[in-house]
Amino acid sequence: MRIIIIVLLICIFGVTLSSFQHRGENDIRTNSGSSNTCLKCHNGIEEIKDPDSYMMETIAEIAEEAGFAGNSCIVCHGGNPETTDKTLAHKGSIPYFLEDDGPKDFYPDPGSPWINEHTCGYCHEAQTRAQFTSLMFTEAGKIQGTEWGFGGLNGFNHNQANYDVDELPLHQQLGTEVYLKYMQRMKDAEAQVFPGSMKQLPPAPTAAEVKENPQLAAYTYIRQECQRCHTGVKGRNKPGDYRGMGCSACHIPYSTEGYYEGNDASISHTEPGHVLVHSLQSSRECEVTVNDKTYSGIPVRTCVTCHNRGRRIGTSYMGLLETAYKSPFMLNGDEQEQVFTKNYLHMHADIHKDKGMLCQDCHTSLDVHSSGILAGTTLAAVEIECQDCHGTPQKYPWELPIGFSDEIAG
Known about the structure:
The chain has a 3-stranded mixed sheet with strand order 1-3-2. A two-stranded antiparallel sheet has the order 4-5. Helix 8 (140-149) runs antiparallel to helix 11. Helix content is 32%, strand content 6%. Strand 4 and strand 5 form a beta hairpin. Among the domains are: 25-108, no CATH class; 300-357, no CATH class. By secondary structure, it is mainly alpha-helical. It has helices at residues 2-26, 54-65, 73-77, 86-89, 95-99, 125-130, 135-138, 140-149, 177-189, 207-212, 217-226, 248-251, 300-304, 313-318, 351-354, 365-369, 378-381, 387-390; strands at residues 160-161, 165-166, 197-200, 287-290, 293-296, 320-323, 343-346. The protein is globular and about 60 Å long.
């Protein structure tokens, strides 16, 4: 009997040891004690957001419900958490997400508008639904403005965009009842600016077509020069133009040179095109730490990744004046390094920037994400006016009616 007990104890110990060794080879334990095999390779990677935040607590709950407690990575990125093989891990998704809400494949950039209904949209459904009507996605104003400059190809109509898109139905539009009623009045007054639907802009013409009608060269210019900054695509991977797609274009930080500066040893620190750190930037309460320095909010520099062309509103806000000259020269005598493929003189920044204001301090969520209303120009979509903060000589801002000082139908 004693021999049987001893044999059983040896077997139990052997199974336990084998299980422990197997876990050590394949699993990494988070601070909570839960398994996350992604960290087997991505050990040291930054938390996308504070683990104690509502967002991360919600993601943790989804991971647990999906059967992989502690592995928050797969809730946004998908992939196969049951292997440490790089190719297999970065492929497919778990059955729970395939059958329910969640990633349908491995997504290197979960913010991409082409798939974010399965990722960001899991919690932010209203914003991901409205994103396709945003001017940062349609770029309708640039299209119509260029067409007008080439002889009014489309008249006063603002009904062309990067892609076919329809305005959201009223019950899905975002904003207060007062706001939506006001916008309806705007739409009635300026119908050509609020078309309800837009079609994809015409393709670039052939040489023969341009010879027959030189105005059509507008579409070559638009497609080659103007339309590369919309949120449906990534940046050009040149200094100053590294960014993600969709939500990631604004909410994931990239450096000017596109290098990763975090602590994940599996991500190259010398190959451009990577995120600055694996962290989310959003409100003033959301902190991002890079090289022991912490900031919050969405930096102006993120916005200027795109807003350095057209009216140059972003670069002028920063005090950058475009110049054809290479001076001022670098300390070692080299020519000034180009940013956004251009050279700049450093002038005085806008007073609001000097006072520490970010773009998002004035430009609201409806400005940026869109309310679901399809607008063909910035004057129709951008809400902020000087009087919204400064008031007038006679009234405080909160005493003014909605839409005060609007340039359209004002």
